[in-house]
Amino acid sequence: MARSLVFWRLSLALLAAALVCGVSPVRADAGKVETFQFQAEVTRLMDILIHSLYSNRDVFLRELISNANDAIDKIRFQSLTDSSALAAGEDLHIKINVDLPSRTITVEDTGVGMTKQDMINNLGTIAKSGTSAFLEQISKDLESGGGADTANLIGQFGVGFYSAFLVADKISVVSKNNNDPKQWRWSSRTNSGFTIKEDDSEPLGRGTKVILEVKEDAAEYLDIEHLEELIERYSEFIVFPIYVYKEVPEVPEPEEPEEEEEEPVIVGDVGDESADGEVDAETPEDEDVTDEEGAEQDDEEIVSEEEDPAIEDGEEAPPKYDWSLVNDVKPLWTRDSSEISEEEYISFFKSIAKTDEEPLTYIHFKAEGEVEFRGLLYIPKKPIRSLTHMEEKTRKDLVRLYVRRVLVTDTVEDGLLPAWLSMIVGIVDSDDLPINVSRETLQQSKSLTAIKKKLLRKALEAIKMMMDKEPYEQEEDDPRKPGSQFLDFWKVYGPTLKMGLVQDVANRDRLAKIVRFKSSKTALRDPNDVITLEEYMLRAKRGQDYIYVHSGESLDAVKNSPFTEQLVDLGYEVIYLVDPVDEFLLQYYQEFQGTKLMAVAKDNFRLGPDDDEVIRTKAKRGRQSIRSLLTFMKETLGSDKVSSVRASMKLTRSACALSSEQFGYTARMETVMRAQALANPEKVQTIPKQKVMEVNPYHPIVEGLNVLLERDPQSQKAADIINVLYDSALVASGYYLHDHTDHGIRISKLMAQTLGMDPNVTFEEPPMPDMTEVEDDEPEKVEIPINFGDMPDDDDAEDDEERIDLEGDDFADAEYAAEMEEEVADEEL
What we know:
- This protein is of the alpha+beta class.
- Helices cover 34% and strands 16% of the residues.
- The chain contains 24 helices and 25 strands.
- The chain has an 8-stranded mixed β-sheet with strand order 7-6-5-8-4-3-9-10, covered by helices on one side.
- Helix 1 runs antiparallel to helix 2 and helix 10 (485-503) crosses helix 15 (581-588).
- The longest helix is centred in the N-terminal third of the chain and has 23 residues, at 59-81.
- Mean pLDDT is 76; it is low at 1-9, 12-28, 129-135, 142-157, 265-307, 437-441 and 796-812.
């Protein structure tokens, strides 16, 4: 509301400025009613216009380039009916130069130019758009059967030129129009009016030159590379070429193949040279030239072609400057798709995505109806940037919004595409999209909503196109199933699309048909072997009422989980969920085409009608046989660990497992919550520790425990085994083990009992030795003779035999030293 009020006030101010000059009141005699026109203080209005209308100073260059583009387009239109319009020059371009000594930025174009009166009307009147007036004239011509296409014209409001005062203290405009023999200069500062005079500087021929004297606090805009970045951001797809004057690297000339060196030809009367300059064949090649005068002349005349006599030794060559093209990428989306080759689409993607990778796929379309726009969307092989930012409300989109090829924004509230499609790169360009005067923000309207809906539909269409494409064969030595373009896409962006099931309620049904999963009936090591929910339902067992899913940290952990034992044995297929987002998916997406998803790790587990009755009866019979054990286990573990202990319907090979309650946290969910970078420790502590302990009554360990308890209803050994079983089930079920110390103590006790030792015996350490006696003992010295045999004599050595002292620090054992001495003696013999 506040933003709308500001722009409403600005609109009134602009209207007042347009009507301020030389207007007298209009009187109505009937009823003595007087009508007056609004007045405005122009200086104050200019200050509001410059500092309140635009929030980013970077846009000044965008506005000046847009004006230059319109000026060139106008002269192009005129040349269609008047061939002499381009007599002063047929090269249509925009040039930008920076002069550091004078702190000026110059934007020059070869457009239509302005007469003196045009300067007064267009530059001297705020909110007077020359382009708008030109469009009105073209529209009249079109109605009468003439005119031309005006899609390239950008200007609408007539205030963009004044954004240059954001960075400049003074603006000078030099312009030459074909209809005016003179060249004029318009100059102004923000706190004064403007002046116009005949310009005597270098003739333009035709066109306009805008010169900005940059403010002290805007020195960054004197960097030509920074201006180049602004051009690439805002005006990259302007139709006409934009050049900047910058230092260019010297291109080294290709090296010529080496040739055999020849003796230099000496000019002058040296030796026996003939009159025509050829050396006499009888002169020996190796004959030395001794004539000093001839040698000096030779040195003067034999000069390397690569040497520049103007550059002295040790001095670097001055930098080379030239005009460099900035917008070499053309707006591909404006052309018909039938005219564009595959190579052009790929090249354009690499340009806008700033990558060397080719895209997976793309879709080029033109939308008509409520709002007309053109779009070109790409799905890259790898994310152009991290997808962790996708939850930000005002994130920067990789789909950029243009109005007539000029960037409006890449930060639309809630995004042009939903967060789960934030990997898509592309362009959206509309000619009639409602924008604010500053072109920095979009007006909230039905048009923007319509664009978002159509973009989403086209993005899903591009994904569907990949799904429909024929699979390609893997390499001959690759045992995996055939791959496809969609599977390549799914491997990279699968978790992101699953997040769409959580967030996008309106498109859940569409996404549910796209997502893929691993299951108990797919090849675990083959990334291409995945299924859809539709495929799961087609091969479900007769009478199956649920889609069984189980989550864990890895495929191996889920496959070997105790919760899937009974299901797999009975022939049910279990979907494996190993992505962190899958836990949220289970909370928000609970039904597919009328069939509910059931987490097998929850205590509300059910089987198909036929199997459920059989397994339930079996579990009930087992419960009767271990009723006292179940009660003892509940009392031993306590209510802070388990909420209940029951005979399991899920286990066949495991002794026990821990299920979560129907509305509690699964093991995977607890892991995800603990792993969050900003996890609140207090919130983690509130995770309920109570679990449902499921016991397999037919497991040998459980049967042994039952026998032990029948012999001794208060058996401490049975209690210790139950605690260890609980810890083991906690880990096997994927939960976090809280009491590591107690678990270690219990394991040690069981190991002691297994070895026939008393687990309650306290271990006593042996006494420490008296170190004083050891310190008083001096190390024993042992001398060992060493014979170096026939080694060459050394000047400093008098004997061939040396003796080495071996102290007790190196050989503490004197007997060992004696043995070494004997061995050396044997070698001497």
